[in-house]
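Problem 12. The chain below contains 441 residues. Write out its predicted structure in token notation.
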Amino acid sequence: MASNGRRSLAHVLVASGLANLANPIAAIATAPILAQVLGPDGRGAVAAATAPLVLMTTAALLGIPEAVTYVVARTPGQSRPSVWRGSLIVLVSGVASTLSVVAAASYTSGGDSTVERLTVVTALALTPALLVGVQRGRAAGLGLFGRINAEKYIGALVRLGGIGAMAALDVLTVTSAVAVIAAAPIIAGMPYLRPVPDSVIDDSPETQGTKWGSILHFGLRIWIGTLSGVLLSRLDQVLMAPLSSLAELGFYVVAVNVADLALIFNNAVRDVLYATEAKGGTAGERAIVAARLSAALSLVLGVVLASTMTLWLPLVFGPEFAASVVPAAILLLAGVTGVPGSIAGAILSASGRPGLRSTSMVAAATVNIILLFLLAPALGAVGAAIATLIGSLIAANANIIFVSQRLPHGFKDFYGVRRTDFQLALAVVQRLTHPQHVSKD
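Solution.
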């Protein structure tokens, strides 16, 4: 059975890795369209109008999806009550967050009346997107990764198809682009409308009785780290327009799109390992091996992108976006060096220690915000990228230190690649390509 379990995990990781390609591919495919049709100012306007929505879609979740995943993974019989309780919590949070986005729109728009109006309109998509997040947490806890992958594919197709079609019809504007980006996450939630098969839910009496406090308490502990993480990765896009300009925001968004490509595999590994390791409340050697292999693959992708983007980035996005090359290189460095720490953060949460991950993220976000206000006005996109790099290094290494202090994994275990790692990776590939040869014992 052990072989079957590893094979199953391998298939999940590969399928999730492929699904994680969907949004980056959609982003990188639509980014040149938006850049060339709208220009730096128009691309910056789209980012300024949607950045508060993207930021609050994560921040307002209060860690509830992760809490639902944790509870449901351990006690599948709590699937239905957990998702209802989680939905009610984020419903209240969504209304409050929508009002806050509307109230701050005049500032985050950088004084642009059109961006301010669009920000207010996109805020209406916040609460539905939060409810989709709760359903995603339930699906992860039940191991229904096929639905999560379907969500990613649908969201990517809506974004790419919508923006591509409007560009082809010559009706792509800042307003229409914002509408597609805001609607895509909601439409992508369709796979969760399907009923969950009773076969995946254990309704035995011993799984009943999870209270509101269990979800909210765990959610709030992990939410502090999640909020700090989203501030670290998204607040710069919200503040770039008022601190610098819409054009600098346009350059920075393109740099983020490029840097995200190096992390597509790591994001899948992190999310799947969190859901699977939460079942046992700890993390074994496979999580450390996954951290090393994920870091190695991300490094390869990062080096390829960084060494070639001076050739293709201006061609793909337009010569005006040559200014995105330097911030993209800095963000690639931030992403690649942060990979081991992101897995360490998932290990902390899966082992019931989300507060430690939150401590790391709070420290990193605090430094990042201070540096953002100091560097962005003078250096624009480059300054924001430097702030992100320093914050990412703090978060990643603090997570690893916490793991090494409290779990049987040393700091050095997260770095470098061992020969046995490649042997394990080869064995996984063999299981995927020749499943009939795997023992069923």
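Discussion. Residues 1-7, 203-210, 437-441 have pLDDT under 50 and may be disordered. Students who got a different answer should revisit the alignment rule from Section 12.3.
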